[in-house]
Amino acid sequence: MARIVMKFGGTSVADLRRIRRAAARVKVEVEAGNDVAVVVSAMAGVTNAMVQLVSDAASLADLREYDVVVSSGEQVTSGLLAVVLQSMGVSARSWMGWQIPVRTDDAHGSARIEAIEVQEMLRRFGEGQVAVVAGFQGIDPQGRITTLGRGGSDTSAVALAAALQADRCDIYTDVDGVYTTDPRIVAKARKLDRITYEEMLEMASQGAKVLQTRSVEMAMKHHVRIQVLSSFEDTPGTLVVDEDEIVEQALVSGIAYSRDEAKITLLRVLDQPGVAAKIFGPLAEAAINVDMIVQNVSAETERTDLTFTVGKSELERAVAVLRARQEELGFVELLSDPNVVKVSVIGVGMRSHAGVAQQMFTALAERGINIQVISTSEIKVSVLIAEEYTELALRGLHTAYGLDAA
Amino acid sequence: MARIVMKFGGTSVADLRRIRRAAARVKVEVEAGNDVAVVVSAMAGVTNAMVQLVSDAASLADLREYDVVVSSGEQVTSGLLAVVLQSMGVSARSWMGWQIPVRTDDAHGSARIEAIEVQEMLRRFGEGQVAVVAGFQGIDPQGRITTLGRGGSDTSAVALAAALQADRCDIYTDVDGVYTTDPRIVAKARKLDRITYEEMLEMASQGAKVLQTRSVEMAMKHHVRIQVLSSFEDTPGTLVVDEDEIVEQALVSGIAYSRDEAKITLLRVLDQPGVAAKIFGPLAEAAINVDMIVQNVSAETERTDLTFTVGKSELERAVAVLRARQEELGFVELLSDPNVVKVSVIGVGMRSHAGVAQQMFTALAERGINIQVISTSEIKVSVLIAEEYTELALRGLHTAYGLDAA
Q1: What is the ipTM of this complex?
Q2: Do A144 and B19 touch (CB under 8 A)?
Q3: Using CA atoms, how far apart are residues A44 and A10, in angstroms rounded to an integer?
Q4: pTM for this entry
């Protein structure tokens, strides 16, 4: 007997037929003698429709009211799943964020969970009742509805699993696990049996949209064992666990990519102390995130070239901010390029092994792919390349690191 | 300066364009210096879609979960209207039933409001903030969401007006007031300037679907002045008020009709003490409402004929219940007829004037319309006639009682 949190995403509860299938999975766990809390997303498409309604209502909507509107979808799904479970003979009740309560800060639209009160839920587990929890939502200290940001139901599930000290947090989704890379691009991509939190974090933030980044951070902090699995197939998924649970660690676990990058180069910036602050300060003030940064030595003395990346959707704004300060910053020319992709190789194994980056550069060079920017962290090497080479680079790296399926 | 509750029904908030129009009306009241609480329904069609979802999910759904699902529509509208008001420069915030809170009993699906706590709302009126309240919903003593039954937002509005001791409760709807009778049938129907609570109650329960019956009862009890008016036209509506506010009271104020009736006749029932209880007891147990009842003397001694009406949708069940008890009840034959209509003339003036019923019977007889059942109350005379005579009867009575527009 175990205590389990099961989370079903939007496509897994897209209609009543799928809600019934999800309920059948819940019933299996209940009949195995487990205590079960289920966290549900809104039915596929509903949250997008709500977001659209609010943005049509006003260009700059009060985020407290935004949260009122967009949190409604999870309320509907939780009630429906409770009804379906009951009709299958499984004792169940729905819980809204404010009923539990799921206490958050007041950062509406992307609130952080601070505490979840689970005493009553635990008591009802004792009576054999399944808790069906509306994901994505909580209440702030003033008692107003908050939401946790897109994909926030993953975080709801992990936070609930932590509060319940659950043995497992199963995330049912429309893919059957975490892959070495995107199987739509690399046919030889393999499903991973296990991946560490840190690797998953890099995979998620690099564009492998399986789990919300924040949910993985939280799982790592509270040692919540996540399983990512398909709600449509009966195959084992991928376990996301502590590093010490993985006996034989591959050097590289996966290769991620992100097309949501754009490159900006400032040519012949004045090479003086404080110039970087003058460039990145105004961007930060405009809420534009800068990701990779590289500074080249220029031929000219007292001048340097600076290249960095911003989100593709923020490129236009970033260029405007910089051009407005051209005189002050002293650059001679500004080049921008949205047609780039960031490719990252990820693996905790590289902590203890040198040569991973070199292997990447070699593999790309052999395929004639020019590297524009490089950045590295302890368990990751990322390069920026021209977008047209995405598939070639992914397939080449996948082979080079020995990740191809047999 | 006044304190006003404004209620917008589903068709008045059916899309963003209409929500903006409603917001413009709210703004007018705010700029006139009034304290304003707005009660909103779900956008037209949403509640029906939710009801359908729940009934598709399970034939006998837990009403607590039904309430979770169907209350979501009002949540969305309240958030949207608050956003739109803010974008027009009007300070506003949304309130869910559980936030105010609107305390109800635990009769889920058709709960009754027991108390509304308005201190915080009043405080915010002092700061010039409009309260946008999700209608139709409350919480039960266990903190679970309740709903007030179809049309419940009217009751939310009147209860809030009572709690706030509001000067007026304006019900914006898709008709521009209460008419002497259905203008779709009688072209000469007139809009009433004023109508008493009691008359409105009879009009509502007789099928003039302008206001939820329960909201009128509550308005009468708490002396809430209701105004029914169109959200699409700038014309004065109908005031629903205490009898003493109406100086010149017409004998008959209006003529209502209901097609939701079916007739059952039991021929030659044993005429013994207790037989009525034996007939109507089983029907009550089956939750079948009986409306009009008439007992005729039969030619045969110790036998009587009994005729009564039930809701058209309950006719089949009622017949089954009675046939199963034919031997015990001793009736010889059971006749049923769904093709009937109940027509009622209504007016508080008939309390002090005789002859109103006679006038009705004469007017119908002159047009060759046979009366099947008659029932009367202090301010109403109802007759059951064949459905095919509906239009003829309504037009004839409208003329006979001098209600025709000039």
Answers
A1: 0.84
A2: no
A3: 4
A4: 0.85
